[in-house]
Design a protein that fits this description.
Radius of gyration: 25 Å
Strand order of the largest sheet: 1-3-2
Distance between the termini: 51 Å
Number of domains: 2
Order of helices and strands: HEHHEEHEEHHH
Shape: elongated
Largest sheet: 3 strands, antiparallel
Helix content: 55-70%
Number of strands: 5
Structural class: mainly alpha
Number of helices: 7
């Protein structure tokens, strides 16, 4: 039995129940030596599939249930995508977004043409920022084993695709104002400011 088959077999026996299963009980069900089983259990724990709890001298194993988390994630993503799509629609109603100001004694700048455009830009930037915060959260959840690597990567990649598609839509519609958009984002949103 290879490592992947062993891990699959372990996952098929461990319950979701908080009462869990002892390592000894698991070993009686698994067709391998104890050392290999313990290594596999440790690996699955590191990946976030198994929770280990100690009660006295007993080590209890239980599966981590992420089904309700996935449902919540999908709901949050739908809501965020709807808000972001609406902000893109408002931005794309404007033919021109910025006026360029050139100075002799201070850096040049791009300013929104009017307060309505400034408000629409802020909304777009804010909704993109929310998604970036979710992405950062899942990066750390993966790093500190709060979530399985597979699930964290799924969520991070989904958010990356949403962000890329949304930003590309705005940049394509306002291709001549790309520098203005970059300037605006860099100077109004700390999450996007790669200088600091």
């Amino acid at each position: 039995m290879n490592n992947q088959e062993l891990e699959q077999e372990i996952l098929s026996f461990i319950p979701y129940s908080p009462s869990g299963m002892t390592k000894s009980a698991l070993h009686r069900l698994i067709r391998t030596d104890r050392s290999s089983m313990l290594k596999a259990v440790s690996h699955l724990t590191d990946l976030g599939y198994i929770r280990q709890e100690t009660k006295g001298n007993t080590h209890l194993l239980s599966l981590i249930d992420t089904k309700s988390d996935i449902k919540t994630f999908k709901g949050v993503m739908k809501w965020q995508i709807d808000l972001l799509s609406e902000s893109i629609k408002k931005l794309n109603e404007h033919k021109k977004l910025f006026k360029f100001r050139e100075y002799k004694k201070k850096p040049n700048e791009y300013k929104p043409i009017n307060p309505k455009i400034a408000q629409d830009l802020m909304q777009f930037s804010m909704y993109v920022d929310y998604l970036m915060q979710h992405s950062n959260k899942y990066h750390y959840a993966k790093q500190f084993k709060f979530m399985t690597e597979k699930e964290a990567n799924f969520r991070i990649n989904k958010i990356d695709r949403i962000l890329k598609k949304s930003i590309d839509q705005v940049f394509t519609k306002h291709s001549k104002e790309r520098l203005g958009l970059i300037y605006w984002i860099q100077h109004t949103d700390r999450t996007w400011n790669v200088i600091i």
